[in-house]
Amino acid sequence: MRRSAESKDVLRQLRDHGEVVRGYLGVALIPLTPEARQAAKLESSRGALVAETASGSPAASAGIKPGDIILGFQGEPIQNPHDLTRRVAGTPPGAKVALRVTRGGRETPVEVTLGRLKDAPLTPSDAER
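Above: the chain's sequence. Below: its structure in token form.
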């Protein structure tokens, strides 16, 4: 049975550190609505709409606000909210990442230093489920 790169990363982190460490941006995301897409003058429905920004989060510190649409992460397009969440989680805390964000129809680059997602550490048996 072949393991995905994400599974291998989880197992490596458990072996090396006894826990899984994930990056944290601090946003609640929803799929891009037709209304938001039209207001932002986007031709595609790709991206992640920011529904909420956690107070004191890396996103808030970088100026990301509800209503912003995140279109890119580290030079790669974002397909949907799950895609962005996966990429953020797979990036080490403390990493500076480049986002491509649109607000009110204007696109702008935003640099964010990711925080650490504070969740319950996984045990090896959890990672294999």
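The first helix runs from residue 5 to 17.
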